[in-house]
Design brief:
Shape: elongated
Helix content: 55-70%
Distance between the termini: 31 Å
Number of helices: 12
Oligomer: single chain
Radius of gyration: 28 Å
Order of helices and strands: HHHHHHHHHHHH
Largest sheet: none
Length: about 290
């Protein structure tokens, strides 16, 4: 899927959780054995594990699963698997030689096993190549990605967002707001993106939509307080969130903090501050937030 939104594992008997535990134990045992025997293979397993740590969701991401998370993990897994495969083939050759010397038995030779593995790998590479060529079409347009994600995860945030767009286009404010709220609870919670989405423009001025945007901005502010945002970009977005909620004093404080902080948006923040101060002086209300 273009964007993956699997439901979280909530049971100790969840098959994905159990398979993950089994795979982790297997890789740990293999790495430990390699380290004890000072084999090159161990370095690849350690590299794979170290590459997994930053994306292991100890600190949750907006998108828990993404292909780019695997880029640094694959070299370790591939290298470790190849070296383990070589050792397995050597072990089979030794056992076959021993059995033939003792019992005169035949069976599959290591060369036959190696050829079979090569055919399997070639088949997988061909399958993945064809699949990649087909999937590459999705990246021609963002809408293709969203539709693909919605088709794979109909209960996910992307699917809810698309349903909200369709409802907005038909003027169904209640359904659109309900779906947007569901999407925001599944991680599609950028108040600025919701405000600026052209597909939601038909309902952008309705009270229900504006109330939803205020609600989403409020959750963003709550998270900012917990995390202690301090960078220029974070403080600027905090100011915009307060603007959406018409909390102009708090917006002023946040934007002033963003102006003092170092970053690439200093001129933009200064202009926004001047506009906000001017609006407050003129009529006691600020400009519409992003």
């Amino acid at each position: 899927s273009a964007f993956q939104e699997p439901p979280p594992a909530t049971s100790w008997l969840d098959p994905w959780w159990l398979s993950g535990v089994f795979a982790g134990m297997l890789l740990t045992a293999r790495a430990w054995m390699g380290l004890r025997r000072r084999r090159e293979e161990a370095a690849y397993w350690v590299f794979a594990a170290a590459s997994f740590v930053p994306v292991s969701q100890i600190f949750p991401f907006l998108h828990p699963v993404a292909d780019r998370y695997l880029y640094f993990i694959y070299p370790g897994l591939i290298g470790g698997s190849l070296l383990a495969g070589v050792e397995i083939l050597k072990h089979l050759a030794t056992r076959r030689a021993s059995r033939r010397a003792t019992h005169g038995l035949g069976g599959l030779s290591p060369d036959a096993v190696a050829r079979g593995m090569a055919v399997g790998v070639l088949g997988l590479a061909t399958l993945f190549g064809l699949s990649s060529a087909e999937r590459a079409k999705l990246w021609r347009r963002e809408t293709f990605l969203l539709v693909d994600a919605a088709a794979h995860y109909p209960e996910g945030g992307t699917a809810s967002f698309l349903r909200a767009r369709r409802a907005a286009q038909s003027g169904d404010v209640d359904t659109a707001v309900t779906e947007l709220r569901a999407a925001s609870h599944r991680g599609i919670d950028s108040f600025s993106a919701i405000l600026g989405d052209a597909g939601l423009a038909p309902i952008a001025q309705t009270p229900a939509f504006r109330a939803l945007v205020r609600e989403v901005a409020g959750r963003w502010i709550d998270r900012a307080r917990v995390r202690g945002y301090s960078t220029q970009a974070e403080l600027r977005m905090l100011g915009h969130a307060h603007l959406v909620r018409e909390e102009y004093d708090q917006a002023l404080v946040a934007l002033e903090g963003a102006e003092r902080a170092r970053g690439p948006f200093r001129d933009v923040v200064t202009a926004e501050l001047e506009a906000l101060r001017g609006a407050i002086r003129a009529g006691g209300s600020g400009p519409e937030g992003e």
